[in-house]
Amino acid sequence: MTRGGNEERERFWRGAIQEQKASGLSISAFCRERGVSEASFFGWRRKLTRRAEDEAAAKFVPLRCDAPSMATRPGCEVVLPDGCRIIVPGRCDASWLREILEALRESSC
């Protein structure tokens, strides 16, 4: 199957999974009503859940900043999975840092 076909199937199953949640029907009843395979429903739900978890885990990595003494406030360095490095100065405006982190969260990093 072509890539476009896979994207179309993925869109179909994402929609079906959302519809089932909103319907209040059991998965079995929903699949029977829609004429789709229960096994396929569970398989796609598992696949899409894993993909979402993998994507979320790949975007951010744990950050450890040791608490500096009050006299010295070195910054910290954030290294993203794609190698992008961000150096955060010791004394930076919290709103500035929030803006940067939100921008990174929204980007495809």
Quick structural summary:
The protein has 109 residues and is mainly alpha-helical.
Lay out the secondary structure:
Elements (H helix, E strand, L loop, with lengths): L2 H21 L3 H8 L3 H22 L16 E4 L5 E4 L5 H13 L3
Antiparallel strand pairs: 1-2
Describe it.
The chain is mostly helical. The protein contains four helices and two strands. It has helices at residues 3-23, 27-34, 38-59, 94-106; strands spanning 76-79, 85-88. A two-stranded antiparallel ribbon has the order 1-2. Strand 1 (76-79) and strand 2 form a beta hairpin. The radius of gyration is 22 Å and the shape is elongated.
Give the uncertain stretches in residue-range form. none
The fraction of residues in strands falls at: 5-15%
State the helical fraction.
Answer: 55-70%
**Shape summary:** elongated
Rounded radius of gyration (Å): 22 Å
How many β strands by DSSP? 2
Taken in chain order, the helices and strands follow as HHHEEH
Mean pLDDT: 80
Q: How large is the count of helical segments?
A: 4
Query: Which structural class best describes the helix and strand composition?
Result: mainly alpha
Order the strands across the largest sheet as they lie in space.
1-2
Instruction: Please give the largest β-sheet.
Output: 2 strands, antiparallel
What is the rounded distance between the termini?
29 Å
